[in-house]
Amino acid sequence: MSIVLGTDTITGIAVGGLPSGVITHSEIGYPGCIVQTVTTLTRTATSYSGPITGNGTSIDALNMTITPRKAGNKIIIKWMLGGESTDNNVVYTITRNDVLLADASNAANNRWAGIGHGQYDNNFSSTPLNDAILFVDDACLGTTSTYKLCFRSSNGTARVFWLNRTVGSAGADNNETGVSSGVLYEVHV
């Protein structure tokens, strides 16, 4: 008789159950189900300098760390980023354990290539913008991993990103502030 996992039941187990260690937590799950979730949220209003080379500057307030239950599971990475930069010529990249994810830029890691880009906003004195970043890490490691959203200039001039505020103000009438958040979903494959 086979063992069947139901919504609220398990059938097919003889009286006395299974011997210890037969099924581990990493083996239980249906393809596509979320195995675990990690979240972060920050209201901190601060700035980050975006270089013109390299992977960019990590927006540290939004770093997230996860220990996958199984190597090879997918990690869905989402950030809702509030704020604005001193120019729209910027891109975002993602690193895992400080290594650029393969598809988070182009093969040469050119400064103009990333997983997202800044929005055009010629009003630095009020109302910041929100950027939604979504990425899937198809080859997660079986070890603890820290995912970082990075910011860099997409041309030859360094830029500054103001998190949770406008360029011109840390908060006042008509100068909104907000929160930024992130979530990691480990998806069973």
State mean pLDDT (0 to 100 scale).
Answer: 87
Q: Indicate the percent of residues in helices.
A: under 10%
The tally of helices reads 0
Based on CA atoms alone, the radius of gyration comes out at 21 Å
CATH topology term: Jelly Rolls
CATH class: Mainly Beta
The dominant shape is elongated
Q: Note the beta-strand portion.
A: 35-45%
Describe it:
- The structure is a single chain.
- With 189 residues, the chain is mainly beta.
- The protein has one domain: Sandwich (Jelly Rolls), CATH 2.60.120.
- The chain has strands at residues 4-5, 10-11, 34-42, 46-50, 57-58, 64-66, 74-85, 90-96, 99-100, 116-117, 129-137, 145-153, 159-163, 180-187.
- A hairpin with a 4-residue loop joins strand 1 and strand 2.
- The two termini are 26 Å apart.
